[in-house]
Design a protein that fits this description.
- The protein is an alpha+beta fold and about 270 residues long.
- The chain has one domain.
- Helix content is about 45%, strand content about 10%.
- The radius of gyration is 17 Å and the shape is globular.
- The termini are close together.
Length: about 270
């Protein structure tokens, strides 16, 4: 697929910030289990993508000691609505409705779900860790080596501070760089877009639905990359290569911004 508007992504990053600080993602050691063996896990690829985003949010909450191993959920398309679609997401006794527009990578649409998952205990309050990134190497060039270095450093930082909204925003920017880098090789970047969406939804939940300059930058980059994916999808028949079912957790979740294992990034 043609390389569409990727220069715009890097230009936005270079103009908006010297990327000396960053945030992070949760890649849990996940296994797959059927929520309901009598019906298919998904009926559309879009359900699979929504499930990946919700699962990533649940992963972050699990790492923040919010959930026990074995929690799972199910996503179903409810109906088409003007300019988008509506999905039902069920976890235990909770049912959430997620309404998206032209694509599923809209962090604000997952706000209620993220607030519930990140809430303190059974209450409505949400505690935020004020930790910010103390600094790191600049990433304006988007080089793979720099991304890998920052991925390792920031992943360790978020392991210690999974409730730091600033770190989740930085994670989304790092994922944008990784997605743009992989897109130049025409790889499937949808798993990275799902992770970006999850981090930004959690950042919004932790900060009262507000984003800092880093978060706003990340959302702009997410919108650009999502528009690119819509163009790609119109000209290619893609098989969703994401986790194949509701997520369950191992004994100890691990945190990794840009996945090196576990979420395949297939060539188109």
């Amino acid at each position: 697929m043609k390389r569409i508007a990727l220069a715009t992504v890097f230009a936005a990053i270079a103009c908006s910030m010297a990327f000396a600080k960053s945030g992070t993602f949760s890649s849990l050691s996940a296994s797959v289990t059927a929520f309901n063996q009598r019906t298919p896990l998904y009926t559309t690829d879009q359900e699979r993508l929504v499930s990946a985003i919700a699962g990533s949010i649940l992963n972050i909450a699990a790492f923040a000691d919010r959930f026990e191993p074995g929690d799972s959920f199910q996503v179903r398309n409810v109906t088409r609505v003007a300019g988008g679609a509506k999905y039902s997401l069920r976890r235990r006794a909770e049912i959430f409705t997620v309404q998206v527009g032209t694509h599923v990578w809209t962090p604000k649409a997952y706000g209620k779900l993220a607030r519930s998952f990140m809430a303190d205990g059974a209450g409505l309050s949400i505690s935020e860790d004020p930790t910010t990134d103390p600094g790191g190497a600049a990433l304006e060039d988007g080089a793979g080596v720099a991304i890998a270095r920052e991925n390792a450093r920031l992943s360790r930082l978020l392991q210690a501070h999974p409730r730091a909204s600033a770190l989740h925003e930085r994670a989304a920017v790092l994922l944008a760089l990784a997605a743009a880098d992989r897109a130049t090789g025409e790889a499937d970047i949808r798993p990275l877009l799902c992770r970006m969406t999850a981090h930004l939804a959690v950042a919004r939940a932790l900060r009262g639905d507000r984003l800092s300059a880093d978060g706003q930058l990340a959302e702009r980059l997410l919108a650009q990359l999502s528009d690119r994916e819509l163009t790609v999808a119109r000209t290619a028949q893609l098989e969703a290569r994401l986790l194949d079912g509701p997520v369950t957790f191992g004994d100890r979740p691990t945190l990794e911004i840009v996945p090196t294992d576990g979420v395949p990034v297939a060539q188109r």
